[in-house]
Every structure is written in structure tokens, then in C-alpha cells.
Amino acid sequence: MFVSDILSEKGGLVYTVTPGTTVGQVSRQLSTRRIGSVLIVDRLDRVAGIVSERDIVHAVATHGVGALELEAAQVMTRNVVSCDPDDSIDDVMETMTRGRFRHLPVVRHGELLGLISIGDVVKARLAEASHETEALRAYIVAG
Ligand code: AMP
How far apart are CA 23 and CA 40, in angstroms? Predict the structure, then answer.
């Protein structure tokens, strides 16, 4: 199973905000949309960074309630790691584990195609394991 299989099921919708969006506004978006991160895009629609729940927790721990007035650009991670639609589920599990993050934009030839979370990856891996089990069972029964 590949990243493209996850995208064909969940679609390519990616929530983005501009660098000047406040942390308070980002928090409300994460909450109402029930998501864990947003991408920060510049005026040319290029990915400038990512803000996840963890960045907001860190900002609040550091600045207190004043963190909510900070801009996304002040708390985002700038070096965003992405994946390719042709990457396997095992590839992205390894990338997330090694990078210690739970979100990966999907990019091909500079074009943003979607964003997958660790929840999407676990769901796909479980489906894959279940298909493998079914195939083995059928093989044993047939034998
Ligand atoms: P997460 O586990 O996704 O909530 O993110 C943990 C930390 O990694 C936060 O500081 C995020 O900004 C950062 N992060 C999340 N996703 C990525 C990514 N794809 N590339 C680089 N950093 C990321």
C-alpha cells in the first residue's frame, strides 16, 4: 500500500493559514476542524512551515496566555519534511518515527497534493495486515 492509496480514500484537502495568523486563531481552527496541524503558506502559496498542537503547547508553556497573540510564523517548524505519493506505508512510518512527528505533507514536483497523519498511516497499515491475514487463511484453506 502506498501514500497515493491513502490520498485516494481521504482526498487532498489541506488546511493552510498565512504566516500572520495568530496562534489563538490556529488553535480555534485545529479545534473546530478536529485536526492536529496546519501548513503555513506564503503569498505565492509555497509551504513556509507547519504548526502542530505540540508547537502550541510549547508556546503556551514558554509564554503563557500571551502565546495566543504570537503569529504562526513565530512558532512554526520551518524545515518541513514531506513525502511522495509513491512512498510506501513502511517508508512514511519510518520517516515519522525518525523525525518524531505525526504529520507529512504529500508533495510531487513541488505541488502540494495532500497531508497524511499518523492516524491515516496506522489505519492503512491495519487494513494491509488484515488483507495479508485473509490471504494466508484462504491459502491454508485451499491447501
Ligand atoms: P506532530 O507530532 O506532528 O504534532 O509534530 C511534532 C513537531 O514536529 C512539531 O514541532 C511540528 O511543527 C513538527 N512537525 C510536524 N510535522 C512535521 C513535518 N512533516 N516536517 C517537519 N516538522 C514537522
Answer: 12
State pTM to two decimals. 0.92
Ligand 1: residues with CB < 6 A are: 36-37, 50, 52-55, 77, 80-81, 101-104
Cα separation, 36 vs 18, in Å, equals 17
Per-residue model confidence as pLDDT tens digits over 84-110: 999 999 999 999 999 999 999 999 999
pLDDT at 120 over 80: yes
How many Å apart are CA 143 and CA 136, to the nearest integer? 10
Q: How far, in Å, is the centroid of ligand 1 from the Cα of 58? A: 12
Please report, to the nearest 10 degrees, the dihedral formed by the alpha carbons of residues 122, 126, 131, 133 taken in order. 140
Domain ranges for the chain: 3-142
Please give the CATH number for the structural domain made up of 3-142.
3.10.580.10
* Residue 37 neighbours by CB distance under 10 Å: 24
Q: In what order do the strands lie in the sheet with 37-41?
A: 16-17, 37-41, 47-52
